[in-house]
Write a structure and sequence with these properties.
The protein is mainly alpha-helical and about 220 residues long. The chain is about 85% helix and about 0% strand. It has helices at about 1-20, 30-35, 40-70, 75-95, 100-110, 110-115, 120-130, 130-145, 150-170, 170-215. It starts with a helix and ends with a helix. This is UPF0056 membrane protein.
């Protein structure tokens, strides 16, 4: 019973970490803006493909992330510190409110490209959904929870999270009407604060292990 409770906590923590890193609510206006020139049918297709692709990328990172680190002889502590720094760098513009503006400006500059090409894989699946922060966080999780039961549980969490993203993008127009730009900005800043805390935790945990080995 205790093991089941601990596993559930692990999966909830993993899900919450993905939610903070990816911030699907904050991406709702980005999704709306990028798919503004598509028909509802094409928008639904883009939503499905982008989330399937993002889930596939994260599952691959979860499955072979440890192998990649071993191949390049990178310690998990070093990777956790690098991942923590990367996550903090993503969190800072979320907190000061510049991240979404930068993404919108980038989208506007490439508006012609978005109208001509399929945006499901790039930039929606990667780097907006399965970005560097999400991939780094997933690899870190894979190195600490690498038995088959935990890996299967984390894969289910990734699939559930992708399903949540799909739902949020499906009801994106309704969410924008309810939350408004102010509500989305507030949620983005809260997610940024949680994300920065997560990155700091990665760094502190790794530094403790390194100092313990030195001493």
């Amino acid at each position: 019973m205790n093991n089941l409770y601990l596993n559930i906590l692990i999966y909830i923590h993993f899900f919450a970490g993905l939610f903070a890193v990816i911030n699907p609510i904050g991406m709702i206006p980005i999704f709306i803006g990028m798919t503004a020139f598509y028909s509802p049918k094409d928008r639904n297709r883009i939503n499905i493909i982008s989330n399937i692709a993002a889930a596939s990328i994260l599952i691959i990172a979860l499955s072979i992330g440890g192998i990649i680190l071993d191949f390049f002889d990178i310690s998990i502590e070093s990777f956790r510190i690098a991942g923590g720094i990367l996550i903090i760098s993503i969190a800072i513009p979320m907190i000061n409110g510049t991240l979404m503006n930068n993404l919108v400006n980038k989208k506007n500059k490439n508006n012609v490209l978005y109208k001509k090409d399929n945006i499901s894989i790039i930039p929606l699946a990667m780097p907006l959904i399965a970005g560097p922060g999400a991939i780094s966080s997933t690899i870190i999780w894979s190195t600490h929870h690498n038995n088959w039961n935990e890996m299967l549980g984390c894969i289910i969490v990734i699939l559930l999270f992708s399903f949540l993203c799909w739902i949020l993008f499906q009801i994106a127009p309704f969410c924008i009407k309810i939350l408004g730009s102010t509500g989305i900005n507030i949620l983005t800043r809260i997610m940024g604060l949680l994300l920065m805390s997560l990155g700091i935790e990665f760094i502190i945990a790794s530094m403790k292990i390194i100092f313990t080995k030195i001493l």
